[in-house]
Design a protein that fits this description.
single chain, alpha+beta, VC0467-like, eight-stranded mixed sheet, 29% strand, globular
Length: 163
């Protein structure tokens, strides 16, 4: 049930693994609770996945963050944390332009492809998700924009054994 109704952005596919982050699982913690001296307050931190929960990562929309990698049009992964803080202080990177994660999702070679073939996951283009960086990014909106092939998924109860 860990991944139930998760939207996952894949950030890297290589010969050794695949990495992604759950976009819609708020951790209940804000960044200033983890990085106590961070200048900007009240920025949500999301659960990126079950692996490496002692590590923080982020995606953002600012090409001026050094060492970041553009993973899809206008969305960058990682980079200099110091640049992030400086750009935020100057108002050049707004809280709604960045999303922080603890942990990540990972798959071994071919594992994700096998899960997609077995219909464990639905693959959608990133532009299907209205705003990847939004705190309101949610599974229901994405599923509702798909065709009736996924009607059962749309209506499937959270606790099917309780029906």
């Amino acid at each position: 049930m860990y991944f139930r109704k998760s939207l996952i952005l894949i950030t890297e596919i290589s010969d050794t693994d695949t990495v992604g982050y759950m976009l819609n699982k708020y951790s209940g913690v804000n960044l200033d609770a983890i990085v106590t001296d961070f200048a900007i307050k009240n920025i949500k931190v999301f659960i990126g996945g079950p692996i490496g929960q002692d590590r923080m990562n982020f995606i953002h929309s600012n090409p001026n963050v050094s060492d970041s990698l553009e993973i899809c049009e206008g969305i960058y992964w990682g980079g200099s944390f110091e640049d992030v803080e400086k750009l935020m202080i100057r108002g050049e990177l707004l809280p709604e332009d960045i999303k922080f994660f603890v942990g990540y999702c990972g798959w071994q070679p071919d594992q994700l492809n096998e899960e997609i073939i077995s219909k464990t996951w639905i693959v959608v283009k990133e532009d299907t998700i209205d705003d990847i960086l939004s705190d309101d990014c949610n599974w229901e909106d994405v599923i509702n924009n798909l065709d009736d092939t996924y009607k059962l998924w749309k209506n499937y109860p959270n606790e099917p054994f309780m029906n």
